[in-house]
Specification:
With 614 residues, the chain is α+β, with helices and mostly antiparallel strands. The chain is built from 18 helices and 30 strands. It has three domains: 267 residues, Pnp Oxidase, Chain A (Roll); 121 residues, UbiD C-terminal domain-like (3-Layer(aba) Sandwich); 100 residues, no CATH class.
Length: 614
C-alpha cells in the first residue's frame, strides 16, 4: 500500500503482527535507544513509543529491523522497482521478455514528484527544536541527534526538485555550543551531494537553504540512503518505491515534504561552523568532536498526528545493516554493470561497511596463457576505488572469478580462505598512502586521512591453510595466548600499544622471533593478528572482522615476516602481520550504560510491554 505518513505505516504493521506498542513512559536519554537495541537483537517487531518523557510527540523505531518486515512494507512496489533496476543493468532483457515489464511505465509515473497544491499536512503546526524527542543513544554522545534525518538541498545553478539531493546526514539538536532552538549541527562527510550544493552557495555568497524531513513514507527513508546514479534524484526513487509520488511544496522559500511528519528548515552560511559530536557511529566507536556546518533554524513544522522516527547507530549489526541488505537485494545487478569485469562486491557490515570491501572480478587479459598472477582484477580494483562511496574503502580484497566460479563475497569466511590460499605477499599488496578514508574512521593519521591497500588474489593455490597452531610455536616476551581465528589466521595478544616508536620496536622483535622460529613452519598460517585480546578476536568471525579492519591503518599497521622494499614496492616473504591493537589516537568504543539496561529488563518481565519479546 502507499503510505501517506508514518502513522499509516505503523497501523499497517500492527494489523499484520509486525509491531509492538510500548505504553510505559520511556526516557529519550539512553533508555529508548537501549530498548531499540534489545528488540533488534531479539529479531523483534517495529516499536511504537506512545509515551516519551518530556515530549508531546510519540516515536517509532526498528521499522527496517529485518528483511521480512522491510519487504512487507514495500510488498506492492518492490518487484516493480527491481525490474527498473534490472533494466538499468541490462536494457536488453525487456526485448527478450517484454511481458514481464508491462507495469514499468506505471512505476515510472509514480517516480515523478508532484507539487502539493492543497493538502500539506506537515504545515498544519509549528513547534520548537526543544519540543522534539531529545533522543540520546550513547552515554558520551554530545547531545540529542536526529538519526533518520532526510536532508534536502537544491543546486543553485539548476534549482528545482529534479536536481535536488536527499541524503541522510547527521543532525545534532542541542548541546555543545549550539544556541537552543536557534542552531543545530549539520554533519556530512566526503563524497556527499550536499557538499556540491553548499560549495555553489558559498561561491555565490548566498545563504545555503536546507530542509530536514523526519518521517513520512518509509520509502523516503530508504531513498536517502540509496546509492543512486548521477542524475537520478532520490525523490524520484522515493515515489517509485513508495507507490505514491513524492509530494512537495515551497514554504518561505524552503522546500518541504508535504507527507513528512516533521520538517526543520534553516540556512547554512559560509565559514560558520561549530563543534559537533561526539556521536556513537556505525563503526562501533564514538566519532569525536569536530567543526561542522552550523544550521540556523528558520522553523519547525509538524503534522497534527506526527510520530518521530529514529534508529540507533552502533557496532554492527544494527538496523542500518538491514538497510544495506535491502539495498543489495534491490541494486545487486547495477554496480557490476557500472564497473567492467566486476561480478560482485560486498561492503562488509560487520567491519563497519567502509573499512573493507570484498570483490570478485574477471581475469580476461591473457586467455592464451595460464593465469599465474593478478592482472585485470588490479584494473577493476582501481575502478572500484574511484567509484562513488566505494572510494572510501580502506581494505579492498579482490579475487578472480575464474579460479572458482562458485565463489561469493557474502560467504566471508570461505572468500577469505580462497584468497589466503592464493595470495603472494611478495607481489599482491598494493598500497595507496596519504589519501582519503571515511570521516568516521579514526585509524588513520587525521580526519578523513589515512591509507588504503588492495589485496589481490588470482591463480592456482600456493598453500593449504592450517587449522591448528604448531606445537612448538614460541613467542617473544610480552606476546601470549595465540589463538586460531579461522583456517590460515591466528591472533596473538600483544603488549598494550603506547606510541609508534615503541610499537615498531615490539613488532620488529616479534617478526624477528617468527623469522628465527622459521617462516616455512608458518607457511600455512599466512596471516597473523597482533591484538589486545586474542581470545575475543577468535571468538566469532564478526569480532575478527570488526577489530582487524576498524583498528588498522594499512600503511602504518601492516608488517610482515622478512619484509622488504623493492623498487618502491613493499612485500614480505613470510606471514603478513597486522597490528590491530587500539592506538591512543583511536576513538573509544561504545559501551552500554548498565543502569539503563536494568530499566529495560523490567519491560521484558511479565506484565511489561516487551514480555516474551526480549
Amino acid at each position: 500500500m502507499a503510505y501517506k505518513s508514518t502513522r499509516d505505516c505503523l497501523l499497517d504493521l500492527e494489523k499484520h503482527g509486525h509491531l509492538v506498542r510500548i505504553s510505559e513512559e520511556v526516557d529519550p536519554y539512553l533508555e529508548m535507544a537501549a530498548i531499540h537495541r534489545r528488540v533488534f537483537e531479539a529479531n523483534g517487531p517495529a516499536i511504537w513509543f506512545e509515551n516519551v518523557k518530556g515530549s508531546k510527540f510519540q516515536a517509532c523505531s526498528n521499522l527496517f529491523g529485518n528483511m521480512e518486515r522491510s519487504k512487507f512494507m514495500f510488498r506492492h512496489t518492490l518487484k516493480r522497482v527491481s525490474k527498473l533496476v534490472q533494466l538499468k543493468a541490462d536494457p536488453s532483457v525487456a526485448l527478450k521478455q517484454p511481458w514481464k515489464f508491462l507495469d514499468v511505465p506505471y512505476t515510472g509515473l509514480t517516480a515523478l514528484p508532484s507539487k502539493a497544491w492543497f493538502s500539506k499536512p506537515v504545515l498544519q503546526n509549528e513547534c520548537k527544536i526543544s519540543d522534539l524527542p531529545q533522543i540520546q543513544c550513547w552515554p558520551d554522545d554530545g547531545g540529542a541527534f536526529v538519526t533518520l534525518p532526510l536532508v534536502y538541498s537544491e543546486d543553485l545553478d539548476k534549482p528545482g526538485i529534479m536536481k535536488s539531493n536527499l541524503g541522510m546526514y547527521r543532525i545534532q539538536l542541542g548541546g555543545n555550543d549550539y544556541v537552543q532552538d536557534k542552531e543545530i549541527g549539520l554533519h556530512y562527510q566526503l563524497h556527499r551531494g550536499i557538499g556540491v550544493h553548499q560549495s555553489k552557495a558559498n561561491a555565490k555568497g548566498e545563504p545555503f537553504k536546507v530542509s530536514v524531513f523526519v518521517g513520512g513514507s518509509p520509502a523516503h527513508i530508504l531513498s536517502a540512503v540509496m546509492p543512486l546514479p548521477e542524475g537520478l534524484p532520490e525523490v524520484a526513487f522515493a515515489g517509485a518505491m513508495g507507490g505514491r509520488r513524492f509530494r512537495y511544496a515551497y514554504q518561505d522559500g524552503f522546500a518541504v515534504s508535504a507527507d513528512a511528519d516533521f520538517v526543520i528548515t534553516g540556512t547554512v552560511h559560509k565559514g560558520e561552523n561549530k563543534p559537533e559530536g561526539p556521536f556513537g557511529d556505525h563503526l562501533g566507536y564514538y566519532s569525536l568532536t569536530h567543526d561542522f556546518p552550523l544550521m540556523k533554524v528558520h522553523k519547525v513544522w509538524h503534522r497534527k498526528d506526527a510520530i518521530w522516527s529514529f534508529t540507533v547507530v552502533g557496532r554492527p549489526p544494527q538496523e542500518d545493516t538491514q538497510f544495506g541488505a535491502l539495498i543489495h537485494d534491490i541494486t545487486g545487478p547495477v554496480i557490476p554493470s557500472e564497473v567492467p569485469g566486476l561480478h560482485e562486491v560486498n561492503a562488509v557490515d560487520a567491519a563497519g561497511v567502509h573499512p573493507v570491501l570484498l570483490a570478485i572480478g574477471s581475469e580476461r587479459y591473457t586467455p592464451y596463457y595460464e593465469r599465474k598472477q593478478p592482472q585485470e582484477i588490479l584494473t577493476i580494483a582501481n575502478h572500484i576505488l574511484g567509484f562513488g562511496q566505494m572510494s572510501l574503502a580502506k581494505f579492498l580484497i579482490i579475487a578472480a572469478k575464474e579460479d572458482n566460479p562458485q565463489l561469493h563475497t557474502h560467504d566471508i569466511s570461505h572468500f577469505l580462505q580462497h584468497v589466503l590460499k592464493r595470495i603472494d605477499w611478495r607481489r599482491d599488496l598494493h598500497f595507496h598512502t596519504k589519501t582519503t578514508i571515511d570521516t568516521l574512521d579514526y585509524s588513520g593519521t587525521g580526519l578523513n586521512t589515512g591509507s588504503k591497500v588492495v589485496m589481490a588474489a588470482a591463480g592456482p593455490t600456493i598453500r593449504s591453510l592450517a587449522t591448528s597452531l604448531p606445537t612448538d610455536l614460541t613467542l617473544p616476551d610480552g606476546f601470549h595466548t595465540p589463538k586460531i581465528v579461522m583456517p590460515g589466521v591466528f591472533a596473538v595478544s600483544a603488549p598494550k600499544y603506547k606510541d609508534e616508536k615503541s610499537a615498531l620496536e615490539e613488532i620488529e622483535r616479534f617478526t624477528t622471533n617468527m623469522s628465527n622460529y622459521g617462516r616455512d613452519k608458518l607457511k600455512e598460517l599466512p596471516l597473523i593478528l597482533l591484538t589486545d585480546d586474542s581470545e575475543f578476536v577468535a571468538r566469532t568471525l564478526n569480532n575478527f572482522l570488526w577489530t582487524s579492519f576498524t583498528r588498522c591503518n594499512p600503511s602504518h599497521d601492516i608488517h610482515g615476516i622478512e619484509a622488504f622494499v623493492e623498487h618502491k614496492h613493499w612485500g614480505c616473504r613470510g606471514s603478513l602481520v597486522m597490528d590491530t591493537r587500539i592506538k591512543p589516537h583511536h576513538a573509544p568504543p561504545l559501551v552500554e550504560d548498565a543502569a539503563t539496561e536494568k530499566k529495560v529488563d523490567k519491560l521484558g518481565e511479565k506484565g511489561g510491554s516487551l514480555y516474551e519479546i526480549i
